[in-house]
Amino acid sequence: MNRTSSGRRPSADPNSIETKYLKSTVGPVLSRGLAEIVERRPNDPIEYLATFLYKQADNIRAQKQKEDNAKQLEIEKQKAKEDEQYRLQLKNEVRALRKHEENQRRQCRRDAEELAKRHKELAAVSPPLPPVHKEDNGVFIVEFGETELHRQAAIQGANLSKLLRKNYHSIASRNAEGKTPRDVAIDADLQENVDQIGIFRRK
């Protein structure tokens, strides 16, 4: 063993790694324990120091646990905050989506109502009469365009007199085939309709 000539161990090197480690880990606690022994002067200093060191170790563990718990609580608070923000964002997105869908449904209803209104208005408007011009013999000739009189002239039992009273000029109108209502009645072999038209032609 390394001993001095007097038989004692050599003093530890204050700059050695071991010495620095002991100073950084147990040095402060050990110093406080020794200071308490000097102050209190217990009957058994060694037992007192051992108890003191155990208590200090418990305190250190408790403090570390407290710090860990505080960190965990902070993490949980942050996570709860993020979860709440996500729920609010999701709620807002759902609300915006529902509002968009409701606006689309309303727009579709308005478009459908507008279309139905236009169809109703168009159905209520009589088709414009075809332009007429007067020939040299004084007879009004209507330019090509099928009229209601053309359509009714091909129907058996139609009341053509009523139509002719409303619009006498339609008697001379010609459809796309160049035929008058009387021609249509003749082609349909409806003599009654031919006669009704003939009565108005003679007036």
Task: Write the topology of this structure.
Blueprint: H1 17-25, H2 27-40, H3 45-124, E1 132-134, E2 140-142, H4 148-153, H5 160-166, H6 181-187, H7 191-202
Antiparallel strand pairs: 1-2
Region (Disordered): 1-20
InterPro entries: Dpy-30_motif (IPR007858), DYDC-like_DD (IPR049630), Sdc1/DPY30 (IPR037856)
Keywords: Coiled coil
Overall pLDDT, averaged? 78
Helix content: 55-70%
Q: Which overall shape is indicated by the principal axes computed on the Cα atoms? A: rod-shaped
Task: Tell me the distance between the termini.
Answer: 156 Å
Tally of separate domains: 2
Helical stretch count? 7
Query: Unreliable stretches, pLDDT < 50, 5 or more residues?
Result: 1-5, 129-144
Biggest β-sheet: strands ordered side by side in the sheet: 1-2
> Based on DSSP secondary structure assignment, what is the total number of beta strands?
2
* Rg from Cα: 57 Å
Structural class assignment? mainly alpha
> For the report, how would you describe the main beta sheet?
2 strands, antiparallel
| Assembly type | single chain
* Share of β-strand residues: under 5%
Order of helices and strands: HHHEEHHHH
Compact description:
With 203 residues, the chain is an all-alpha fold. The chain has helices at 17-25, 27-40, 45-124, 148-153, 160-166, 181-187, 191-202, and strands at residues 132-134, 140-142.
Descriptive report:
This protein is mainly α and 203 residues long. Helices cover 67% and strands 3% of the residues. The protein folds into two domains: 17-92; 132-202, Serine Threonine Protein Phosphatase 5, Tetratricopeptide repeat. The protein has helices at residues 17-25, 27-40, 45-124, 148-153, 160-166, 181-187, 191-202; strands spanning 132-134, 140-142. The relative contact order is 0.05.
